[in-house]
Design goal:
Strand order of the largest sheet: 6-7-8-3-9-10
CATH topology: Rossmann fold
Number of domains: 1
Number of helices: 9
Radius of gyration: 19 Å
CATH class: Alpha Beta
Number of strands: 10
Shape: globular
Helix content: 25-40%
């Protein structure tokens, strides 16, 4: 009788191992251990100064940790940073664009940096510009765009290469109601496809609606990890917002 072939374990999307970072006397991250599974929209929550953006900058290779390590899809940010950058898409709170370029010029440049062919860039760029309602503005210079329109271009640049992990740091800033709905739908769809969204935001109502699990930080320490429903039940509150306030007071 043939023995069953053992299942190949799936590498987590993100693993933080003892991640620490100091800025002078300030302990921004204090030994964070966290695992984010593939195929989930994961919320990363904390008040100002909790360490959210510091974590994201380490994941994106913009900062080096003082201790510990982080892996994205099995790639260490310390040992193999270029593999990490090829795996992720990143939407910052306020994206810096080459505003003298048009969306077509800028997104073509981004696509080439990720090694995409001209045909793939053209097809996918057209699809995402249409999705965010910017197809008719593809050849306009971006220095005349509103903050919200520029943020849509940041979203397109982040997903153009079809990343396995999408990292979001307050990504809805400046977006109108329709664009926020499109962004939420996109996050859910990526999770359905087996991709991962790591979502840092202060918009707790959005997090509660789209995230399957959340991590709660305070002053660089990881307080809790669980589903929104689990945190609400644990704190005996009615909403995730009140649950967070309760945890931060502990």
């Amino acid at each position: 009788m043939n023995e069953p072939i053992p299942a190949v374990p799936v590498t987590p999307a993100i693993v933080l191992n003892g991640l620490s970072k100091n800025f002078g006397p300030t302990r921004a991250l204090d030994g964070i251990d966290l695992t984010v599974r593939r195929g989930e929209v994961f919320g990363y929550l904390g008040s100002n100064g909790a360490g959210k953006t510091t974590t994201i900058k380490i994941l994106c290779g913009l900062l080096a940790p003082d201790a510990g390590d982080a892996q994205v899809c099995g790639h260490s940010v310390l040992a193999n940073p270029m593999a990490v950058k090829a795996t992720i898409g990143y939407v910052p709170e306020s994206g810096a664009l080459f505003e003298k370029l048009s969306p077509r010029e800028y997104l073509t440049m981004v696509g080439k940096l990720y090694g995409l062919t001209d045909d793939v860039i053209e097809i996918d760029m057209d699809r995402w510009l249409l999705y965010f309602g910017l197809r008719d503005r593809r050849d306009q210079r971006m220095d005349g765009f509103s903050k919200g329109t520029k943020q849509k271009i940041c979203w397109i640049a982040a997903v153009l290469h079809d990343p396995a992990v999408l990292i979001l740091d307050e990504p809805l800033n400046g977006l109108d109601v329709e664009a926020v709905t499109l962004a939420k739908d996109l996050m859910r769809e990526m999770a359905v496809q087996g991709r991962t969204v790591f979502y840092s935001s202060h918009l707790v109502d959005v997090v509660e609606k789209v995230c399957s699990r959340v991590a709660v930080l305070n002053h660089g320490r990881l307080l809790r990890v669980g589903t929104p429903a689990e945190l609400i039940a644990e704190t005996r509150t009615d909403t995730l917002e009140y649950a967070l306030k309760t945890l931060w007071r502990e």
